Amino acid sequence: MREHLADLLRWWLAGRPVAAATVTGTTGSAPRPVGATMLVGPDGTVLGSVSGGCVEAAVHAEAERVRETGPARALRYGAGREAATGVGLTCGGTIDVFVERLDRYTFPRLDDVVTAVTAGAPVAVLTCVAGPRHRLGRRMLLGPWGVHGSLGDARFDAAAVRDARAALAAARTEVRRHPGDLAVLVTAYPPPPRMILFGATDHVAALAAVGSQLGYRVTVCDARPAFATRRRFPSADEVVVDWPHRYLAAEVAGARVDERAVLIAMTHDPKFELPLLEVALAGPAAYVGAVGSRRAHAERLTRLRAAGVDDSALARLAGPAGLDLGASTPAETAVSIAAEVIAVRTGRAGGPLGRGLGRIHASSVAPSGVSPSCEPQSKERYDSWS
Prior knowledge:
Layout: H1 5-13, E1 18-27, E2 37-40, E3 46-48, H2 56-69, E4 73-77, H3 81-84, E5 94-102, H4 110-118, E6 123-130, E7 139-143, E8 146-149, H5 154-170, E9 174-178, E10 182-189, E11 194-198, H6 202-213, E12 217-222, E13 238-241, H7 244-253, E14 262-265, H8 270-282, E15 287-290, H9 294-306, H10 311-314, E16 317-318, H11 330-346, H12 379-383
Parallel strand pairs: 11-12, 11-14, 12-13, 14-15, 15-16
Antiparallel strand pairs: 1-2, 1-5, 2-3, 4-5, 6-7, 6-10, 7-8, 9-10
Helix pairs in contact: 6-11, 7-8
């Protein structure tokens, strides 16, 4: 949904209603996660997807009805009876979809949400997607302005706010269940995770483009002003001319590198790389990688040990960075490294899907009534919104 907020705001500002169909539940093998959204614009334009193609036409038709008539609808698509009529999931799973009309009346502060998300502020949008009809579509917002709106009951609202803070801290969208068959979709818009690439090469440019596509806020850092230019790295959100270890140390000290960050040394130069990796491995980043040959990596580990980096820290270093895909070009190398980053984030081994077991798609929903396992990393930041 984040990538379509600008289009949604444009229609909203023009006073033109839009329909939003959002996945609110999945079972079995489902192609899109909870929170995946299809927007149907005033002219029938489709942005986004809820199924990767299986039921898009049926959802589009329902969305156009809701956009015109107003009342929200909860739908379910599976591989049983629906598949026999041509409307179902060929993968064998089931998805629940909530379809609602979005306009100035149903979402009066959409402009505030888009402004805050664009500025990188954490925002959560809570929507009642199951329960009594008079509650369906009711909405609450959490953001830098505080808490706005109500789901219809003070105790329910308090529980929903706690859920929203947990979802923001865990950086994930989910559906939370409450007594009375109530369900709330908590759409989390945390600040984008950071990907900081150290070096100014064609491989860095290719990885910056992929990282941006994956939703990272990409920074390229290199000490050489002739190489670290905006023209060479158009996909990066920022290009910094500084010594890599000095820049990273300042970012860590300023709490601008957190547990979701990705840090990759791509300088191929020990005088930049070694002090950088010492700082990176002492910090909180989710992924620390370094490119190069196996021989270069062995020498890198020897130098880091000599500098006092212990084995537990070295175990965090992905090197040579990337999955073994046989990559050689900058674009292929970018895919290889990005694939490893995704595998680390999801806790997967990164092997061929055909040889694996279990679900293909990682679950994005916490069990009913159970908070995410990770604790808020900046709890006070969200507790202040009250």
